[in-house]
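Recall the central idea of this unit: under ordinary conditions, the amino acid sequence of a chain determines the structure it adopts. In this exercise we apply that idea directly, starting from the sequence alone.
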Amino acid sequence: MKSMTCKQLGGACNKVFTAETFEEMADLSKQHGMEMYQQKDKAHLIAMEKIQVLMASPEKMKEWFTARKEEFNALPNL
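Accordingly, the structure predicted from this sequence is:
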């Protein structure tokens, strides 16, 4: 198990997610993002706008995603 915060995953808060794989971690972050979107949390909406800009460039999005995955892989197991 490894832990990352919402901020480490491109979000806006210090909520901690714990998962076995990066894919699970990304899913937890996505679920949290959807909850924050529904609540219209301003900080998270701003963070989502930044991700949307990255998504406009598949190359930049891939670089960003790869960097997050490498960060996850470098974390110690809990």
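The two ends are 5 Å apart (CA to CA).
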